[in-house]
Amino acid sequence: MSEKFKQIRAIYILAIILTLSGFTHLWNTVGFPDIFYDEGVYMERAMHVLNGLGPQDRYFYDHPYFGQIFLAALFGLVGFPNSLHPSTDPHFIASLYFVPRLVMGLLAVLDTFLVYQIADTKYGKKIALASSLLFAVMPFTWILRRILLDSILLPFLLTSILFALKTKDSKNKYMLASLSGICLGIAIFTKIPVFTMIPLIAGLVYFNTGRNIKTLVFLLIPIFLIPLIWPLQAIGTQQFDVWMRDVIGQTQRQSFGLPYISLVFFKLDPVLFVLGIAGTVFTIIRRNFFILFWFIPFVIFLLMIGYNQYFYWIPILPVFCISASILTMNVLERLSKRNQNKVLSPVVFLGLVMFGLASTILVISVNVTNSEFQTTSFILQNVHDTDTTVLASPTYAWILHYVFHRENIPNDYSFVLFNHLQTRKILLVADPHFFIDLGRGKQLQQLYNDSKTIATFDEDLSKYDMSTYPYSNIKMNVDGENIQVKMK
């Protein structure tokens, strides 16, 4: 078989993989997953930038602000949200989330391509095709659909790694090192924890260029200068003490920690989790420093901080797919040689892929957001006076405030914990996330007890057995399961 034919075949297979990735990340994009609290937070911040109010959140220095600048720039290009012709219909409310979810889906397709390029550069086409295929179809990758900083930073991180790999034997090593540094700097400027990738990328550039210190300097300058914009902005606005307090406080929030999010990953996608962990151990034992420095520093950081969420796995999701592919292909090739059967390896791997794709289709076909859109529509159609404060999660608040320009709409319901409400009436949206936060202060509990329920919106998920795979994925998508609209 000629090399040209092999290259053409690889291109066709990659095109099929990217098509599959487009399907798994863009099908039913507003129906699944649910509209998560944090997605509302980042939409509110993007609209804050889009309306010319500055890049930094008004109340809290929890993350740098490239994420909201990135989203606001894209929204500005397409005239969002006015180009959608606002109305109070639930279908229009859904379209407000369709646009950013579409962006996230397209980024996930780009991520799939970058995973292929990275694995191809490092390990060859066989591992590249296998890795990108796992990344395209395995169920856990639905988390990339969410409007999250982790989803935004991932293509920048992967591009940085790719440029670092390309410095080997390149005539443009200084330019590639600088581009790698710029991409990683942007990723860190989106969310700080990816600074743990500096050893990986610095090591790649340093050793790929024959231990060239000058190339390393070209890499490190943008890595440190770009994120430095964030504290410098705080100094410029005389809020550096607030910045320090919030950044330190962000790492000290309490949660279930790494063991819990590992268990969540296992329950949502046991095949990828087991293969990824086994593959990582296998490659590290074989002294694969590329896998080691991508995986270990980030996991150590997750162990050290007090607050973790299941989507924090996103930056190392690609390396799970790569290490899983290395292990799987190694085992299958050995079995093929032992049985003298060349068909065994691709058939077994394709069986694994078909299982993952079928599981993903079952999950992403579920609609879990209708009640959230109906709730927003109900508020818009029934609250018209200026003497009512609406206390809701950011999922609803940014739409009411920035799209429909309603008055007395705080960023979220926790506003009542720190401020006195000036209006005579209060409308409360008590969704499942509200009940998680109920213990944050007695004001929330008192407000809930003193309010009268005027409407409820339910998403019937009882027909799905969430204790079994793959519908266990729905357990992380119940923010629309029961929503109470209450009036005081």
TrEMBL record:
The chain crosses the membrane at residues 12-30, 65-84, 96-117, 147-165, 177-207, 216-236, 256-282, 289-307, 313-332, 344-366. The keyword Membrane applies. It is a multi-pass membrane protein. One of its GO terms (biological process) is lipid biosynthetic process. Pfam families: PMT_2. It is found in: Cell membrane. InterPro entries: LipidA_mod_glycosyltrf_83, RgtA/B/C-like. GO terms for cellular component: plasma membrane. Keywords: Cell membrane, Glycosyltransferase, Membrane, Transferase, Transmembrane, Transmembrane helix. One of its GO terms (molecular function) is pentosyltransferase activity. Residues 101-226 form the Glycosyltransferase RgtA/B/C/D-like domain. This is Glycosyl transferase family protein.
